[in-house]
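Hi team,

Filling in the usual template for the complex we talked about on Friday. All components are listed, including any nucleic acid strands or ligand strings, so the model treats them as one assembly.

SUBMITTER: L.P.
PURPOSE: interface mapping
COMPONENTS: four
RESIDUES: 432
SEQUENCES:
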Amino acid sequence: MSRRRRSAQNESSPNYQAKRRELLRDAAIVFQEKGYEAATLNDIAERFGTDRASIYYYFASKKELFQALFHDVVSGVLDENITAAEAVLALDLSTAEKLRRLVELQLLSYENNYPYVYLYIQEDMAKLEFQSTPWAKDMLRKTRRFEKIVSDLLDDLVAEGTFRGDIPTPLMAKALFGMINWTHRWLKPGPRKVNAKQTIDAFCSLFFEGALNPDA
Amino acid sequence: MSRRRRSAQNESSPNYQAKRRELLRDAAIVFQEKGYEAATLNDIAERFGTDRASIYYYFASKKELFQALFHDVVSGVLDENITAAEAVLALDLSTAEKLRRLVELQLLSYENNYPYVYLYIQEDMAKLEFQSTPWAKDMLRKTRRFEKIVSDLLDDLVAEGTFRGDIPTPLMAKALFGMINWTHRWLKPGPRKVNAKQTIDAFCSLFFEGALNPDA
DNA sequence: AAATCTGTCAACGTTGAAGTTGATTGACGT
DNA sequence: ACGTCAATCAACTTCAACGTTGACAGATTT
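RESULT (copied from the run log):
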């Protein structure tokens, strides 16, 4: 039924797409606040300012709504990040400076695409029922791709002698992504005490030079 | 009904407590694998090797089972960690060495109490329905307490000149806890490529001295 | 051996959220 | 004024998971 409607005006409609995106955004906020399982369509409808049944005008199911969030938004952001990361690699910069740019890229992406990407980080795809769907695998592939770029860069830095060789690069990578990804629990955008730029500086200083005072 | 039974043999019973703990452990594994909301009592019963209804012989509800996990296990571990942390503070060691011991404490605790504490970390209490219950607040209080110990130590390290002063200590703390807590996504106990001890060394080296090669 | 206790199980009742339907409202072109 | 269509809503059905009950088998006690 809602199916019929949606196929009828599928691509066109002026503000249909606009409302759809608005609903998508509201859903993202609710999913981020409560988690996928705990969030109900009622919660989402309430935030959207309408009845639960109206959601079915835009999406066929809760699953499809959740999937659309990733297919229409997060996946694109991940693509952008990978493209941007590869552009950084091609730049005429020191390897260390490239790594710094990648950290910057990632954290700014989290801030600019709030709350979409944090939603992806907080929902451990490995635990969700979607883990075996093609799109979930695609998301995972893209994430691994970005991690690989960083990981290779770490190997280069050790090989060229810029980074110390006594710490396994996989553990370095885990530490770095830990700092970055854990921000989903505390970093909120907007005018706050701590913003993404300060965090980037602090994390990069710490990761490159460490916490010890060089003058001591 | 199950109420009557449980109050009847409440404290006593030889292997009642043993089975209860076994069920608690199985539940923890399932909750950790699927998340609280997605996990069903059927899943837990299946792992426990019995019928779903039998669970009610030990716990009055899914909520109570989940709560018991924290009240009977996690809360105690957190207490131990705080006590151990305070013992470290009283030791005759450099402030830096004390911090190292705290990181060690935390990661070894995650390993020794697997999967209980990771369950606590992965379930963002701020998102769960329990967030306002007294025991959830108590858990949060204990977590904050441990974080405060680390945070104060960081302040000391900056004040005494051991640590650099140009990175805000709150951000240092976020970075450190990010590395540590993110391990819940990849560090599993048992004979693996990477274990807790290697992780402690790598994280401490990185956090203290950074990734840059001192000889370069 | 009778009584009781421990723990389990099949069957049922209850609830809450997902999903469906057809009527209805309001805007817009004719 | 009339018909059409986008969008909404109240009211319903369905379903999965929670929760309950009473019977029952084996062990233990008296």
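MY TAKE: The mean pLDDT of chain A is 94. DSSP finds ten helices and no strands in chain A.

Thanks, L.
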